[in-house]
Amino acid sequence: MQPLVLDHNSPSGLVDTKKAGSTTVVWGDYGLRMKDHDRRVSAKQLKNAEETINRRLRGERFRLYKRVSANIGVYTKGSDVRMGKGKGKFDYWAARIPVSRVVFEIKSKLHEQVVRDAFRLAGNKLPGLWEFVKKGDPPMVGITKLGNGVTLEQLKEARREMEPKDNNRTQPTTPAMEGPPQTMGTGLGPPPTAFHVSP
C-alpha cells in the first residue's frame, strides 16, 4: 500500500482531477467507486477497508484488486511553529483519489449481494460516499454517467448558444421632454435655475 523508495518530498496540493484514471471495472466483476468528490485517503484507511473485505469474505474464493496506491507522503508540523524552517517531518502515506475512481475490484463467482455487503462495510471504513459498480456499467465523466443518450462529445459542447458580440449595438436613449422648463426659487440665494420636471 506504500511505495518502496521515496525519491523526494511529494508536493502538497489538491487532487488532480484531470488524471482520474479508470471509472469502470476492468479486471474484476464488481467494484467500489468514489461517489461524492475527490479527497485524500490515507494508507491506513485503505488498509482497514481491505482487511474489512477479507474478513467479510473469509473462506470464500475470490481475488481482490487494489486500483490505487498510497504513494503521496504527507508531512506535518506542529500547530505552534513559526513559518519557515522547511516542510516538516514525514507523518503518513496517502493516496489522492479523484471523484468516480474505482478503488477496489473483486473477481469471484460469489453472489452479488455478498460482494455488495462486503463493499458496504469497506465504504464505512473510508471517508466520503462510495457506490457499488458492476462490470459493464457505463463510465463516468466527473459525476456525470455516460450512456442513455449522453456522450462525451455532448458534454464537451456548450450548454447554450453563445450570442455573437455586436459592437454596433445602439445605446438606448431617453425620450426628449416636451414643454418649457419649469422654474423654482426660494428668494434666499442666487436667482432660480431652470430644470426639467418629468410629467
From TrEMBL:
<keyword id="KW-0689">Ribosomal protein</keyword>
<dbReference type="InterPro" id="IPR036920">
    <property type="entry name" value="Ribosomal_uL16_sf"/>
</dbReference>
<comment type="similarity">
    <text>Belongs to the universal ribosomal protein uL16 family.</text>
</comment>
<dbReference type="GO" id="GO:0032543">
    <property type="term" value="P:mitochondrial translation"/>
</dbReference>
<dbReference type="GO" id="GO:0005762">
    <property type="term" value="C:mitochondrial large ribosomal subunit"/>
</dbReference>
<dbReference type="GO" id="GO:0003735">
    <property type="term" value="F:structural constituent of ribosome"/>
</dbReference>
<dbReference type="Pfam" id="PF00252">
    <property type="entry name" value="Ribosomal_L16"/>
</dbReference>
<feature type="compositionally biased region" description="Basic and acidic residues">
    <location>
        <begin position="159"/>
        <end position="168"/>
    </location>
</feature>
<feature type="region of interest" description="Disordered">
    <location>
        <begin position="159"/>
        <end position="199"/>
    </location>
</feature>
<dbReference type="InterPro" id="IPR000114">
    <property type="entry name" value="Ribosomal_uL16_bact-type"/>
</dbReference>
<dbReference type="InterPro" id="IPR020798">
    <property type="entry name" value="Ribosomal_uL16_CS"/>
</dbReference>
<dbReference type="InterPro" id="IPR047873">
    <property type="entry name" value="Ribosomal_uL16"/>
</dbReference>
<keyword id="KW-0687">Ribonucleoprotein</keyword>
<dbReference type="InterPro" id="IPR016180">
    <property type="entry name" value="Ribosomal_uL16_dom"/>
</dbReference>
<protein>
    <submittedName>
        <fullName>Uncharacterized protein</fullName>
    </submittedName>
</protein>
<dbReference type="GO" id="GO:0019843">
    <property type="term" value="F:rRNA binding"/>
</dbReference>
